[in-house]
Amino acid sequence: MNFHTRKWVKPEDLNPNGTLFGGSLLRWIDEEAAIYAIVQLGNQRVVTKYISEINFVSASRQGDIIELGITATEFGRTSITLTCEVRNKITRKSILTVEKMVFVNLGEDGLPAPHGRTEIRYVKDQFKDDEPIA
After folding, report:
1. Which chain regions cross the lipid bilayer (predicted)?
2. What is the model's pTM?
3. Which of 36, 61, 115, 131 is 20 to 30 A from 90 in CA distance terms?
4. In sequence order, what are the residues at sequence separation of 6 or more whose Cβ sits closer than 8 angstroms to the Cβ of residue 51?
5. So where are the chain's domains?
6. Helix, strand, coil proportions of the chain in percent (round to 5)?
7. How far is the C-alpha of 39 from the C-alpha of 61, rounded, in Å?
8. Domain 2-117: which topology?
9. What is the dihedral of CA 110, 111, 114, 119, to 10 degrees?
10. What's the rounded Cα separation, in Å, for the pair 69 and 17?
C-alpha cells in the first residue's frame, strides 16, 4: 500500500472526546481516494459510488501525524475499486481501514464511461511516452 498523504491532527479536527473526529477523517479519505482514482484513470471526472464498512481500529489525538494509504484492487469497465488504511505515522499503528471504495469514471456528458485501464499506473511509468517538458 502506498502512503502518500500525511495530515497533522489539529484542535479543529477533534471531537468532544479530544480524539480525531471521524467526519474529518472520512472527508480526508474521500478526497485522497478521489485524487488517486483521477490519477489512475487519467480523468478528472470521477465520483464516489460506494464506500464499504469503515473500521475504526484506534483513536488519534491532537498532535498526531497520520498517513493515508490507498491502493487499487480492481479495475472495472467504468470503475476502479480501492482499499484504504490510515495509520499513525510515528507508531505505524492502524487507525482505520476501509476494505472497498468504488469510484466511477464519467464522460463529458456526466454518464459512466469506459476508462480502458487494467492495472495500477505508477508515477515513474506515467511519463515514459510523453514529450519532455521544456
Report:
1. none
2. 0.87
3. 36
4. 30, 98, 100, 101, 102
5. 2-117
6. 20, 40, 40
7. 31
8. Thiol Ester Dehydrase; Chain A (3.10.129)
9. 70
10. 25
Rg (CA), the chain: 16
How far is it, in rounded angstroms, from Cα 14 to Cα 63? 11
**Furthest-apart CA atoms within the chain: distance in Å:** 53
Q: Are 129 and 121 in contact (CB under 8 A)?
A: no
Distance CA 22, CA 51 (A): 14
Mean pLDDT of 94-103: 97
**40 within 8 A of 46, measured Cβ to Cβ:** no
Place of cell 463529458: 108
- Give, in order, the Cα–Cα distances in Å from 77 to each of 61, 106, 117, 119: 40, 11, 8, 12
The cell for 99 is 476494505
Question: What are 53-88's pLDDT values in tens digits?
Answer: 999 999 999 999 999 999 999 999 999 999 999 999
